[in-house]
Write a structure and sequence with these properties.
Strand content: 15-25%
Distance between the termini: 45 Å
Oligomer: single chain
Number of helices: 7
Order of helices and strands: HHHHHHEEEEEEEEEEEEEEEEEEHEE
């Protein structure tokens, strides 16, 4: 292949890359995303123009782009190599062309073009690493085993108030007493047994020195975190709605407090969503039912679901605390039947238990309390997360029944199955969705869309 053909292949690659970055990059900015891709697309097209005109400056501009890309990549990836490589590898390989004799033969006749390109394309990565190291030295960053982790918690609190630590579900803890060097020296301080025969699957909450857990069938227990002493226990005395072992599951509880109430009963409360499809609120200090919540502390979640068997609908995941609301989905037994209960997501006032809104796929924005929800829609059985800044709830959907056969699917079933859905916490209106499996008949579901930071 002649040098001239290689030259135009290189130019074509630059133009193609520039267009592929420019157009989607502009749309990404419209969505509120990073401006990097739009800027990189524009710069790449300018570089292509300079190469066509046989100018001496394209290697310098490319070196500058490589420098910015490396700094941006190191920052975005938090220094993790596997996250960094997709951002910078292609740019570094493409830039090697400027160092070849084939580029020199088609570039500016200036004698120092090769030396200039070498200085810029070798110096850019070195400078980028030095700048990034300086940025990472800024207070508020800490180093872990794979890279750098941005500190997002204030004060290094030891509380764990949500299923995923914070409302966004990041599961990040700023505690640093246990490290790789001393983890082998840990000794057992206390041991607690729930006394409940079935599996223990809950993620404990830790609030003001008290651990809150739930055992199978929603037996809720408060434990002194220092001594392991049981402080109180609430047993709703439920029976499993189905023979399946997971029908007894309680994955955790929710904690809610409001600045408007600092004392009195249920100023701080624990809420569980149950195997018999109800939501129960109890005082975090005593375990007594919150009388003002729903009907003497209980909200019936079967309302609006129509006639169905008890084992066709129940809850295994804790309610999501989204500001002043408690948001719940529900587990629908979507195996081999049609006409199952709705997969509706509902929000209730965290203090009174009053109905707030429902996200019903069949009638978005319409159903109110007590109305019938669309049967058989994809359900949200797992853990949701919440972004208080955007006031958005992120809900992971399953798929509509039945499994393994899609011949009876409606358009709404295929549209919303196995997806991450952003729901406005104030109104219950969907903002956007990202579907991971199209026409999911294999019951893949989305188990847990953890962090809004990851989105």
């Amino acid at each position: 292949m002649s040098r001239k053909i290689l030259h135009w292949v290189f130019v074509g690659l630059l133009v193609l890359i520039g267009i592929l970055l420019l157009i989607p990059g502009g749309f990404l900015i419209y969505l509120g995303g990073s401006p990097y891709y739009l800027i990189a697309g524009i710069v790449t097209l300018i570089i292509a123009f300079g190469v066509i005109r046989r100018k001496s400056w394209p290697p310098k501009l490319y070196g500058s782009l490589l420098f910015v890309t490396l700094v941006w990549g190191l920052w975005e990836s938090d220094g993790a190599l596997l996250s960094l490589l997709p951002r910078v590898a292609a740019w570094m390989v493409l830039g090697l062309w400027f160092l070849t004799p084939w580029y020199r033969s088609n570039a500016s006749p200036s004698k120092d073009v090769h030396a200039s390109a070498s200085r810029w394309l070798v110096g850019a990565p070195v400078a980028a690493v030095l700048v990034t190291l300086a940025l990472l030295a800024i207070p508020g960053y800490q180093q872990n085993g794979t890279g750098t982790v941005r500190e997002t918690r204030a004060g290094g609190t030891s509380d764990w108030r949500h299923y995923g630590n914070d409302a966004g579900g990041t599961r990040f803890a700023s505690l640093d007493q246990i490290e790789a060097d001393n983890v082998g020296e840990l000794e057992e301080v206390w041991r607690y047994r729930t006394g409940v025969e079935d599996d223990f699957k809950a993620t404990p909450l830790n609030v003001d020195g008290v651990l809150y857990i739930c055992a199978a069938l929603n037996v809720v227990v408060a434990i002194d975190k220092t001594t392991g002493e049981e402080l109180w226990r609430f047993d709703p005395k439920l029976s499993a709605p189905a023979k399946h072992q997971y029908a007894k599951t309680c994955r955790g509880v929710a904690y809610h407090e409001t600045a408007e109430r600092t004392d009195g009963q249920c100023a701080k409360r624990i809420v569980t969503a149950t195997a018999n499809a109800s939501m129960i609120a109890m005082d975090a200090k005593t375990g007594e039912l919150c009388e003002e919540f729903g009907s003497s502390g209980i909200v019936d979640l079967r309302t609006g679901l129509g006639e169905h068997y008890a084992d066709e609908y129940y809850l295994t995941s804790p309610p999501l605390v989204a500001g002043d609301k408690l948001v719940v989905g529900g587990l629908v037994n979507d195996s081999q039947d049609l006409g199952l209960p709705s997969g509706v997501v509902r929000a209730f006032d965290a203090i009174t238990g009053d109905f707030a809104w429902a996200w019903d796929l069949g009638r978005p924005g319409e159903p109110g309390e007590g109305e019938s929800y669309t049967a058989g829609t994809p359900n949200v059985w797992s853990i949701m997360s919440y972004d208080p800044e955007l006031n958005l709830i992120y809900a992971p959907t399953g798929n509509a029944g039945p499994d393994y056969f899609g011949g009876a699917r409606r358009e709404i079933d295929d549209e919303w199955s196995s997806a991450v859905v952003a729901i406005d916490a104030a109104t219950g209106q969907q903002r956007w969705k990202y579907q991971t499996v199209h026409h999911d008949i294999w019951d893949y579901d989305l188990p847990y869309r953890v962090s809004h930071h990851a989105l």
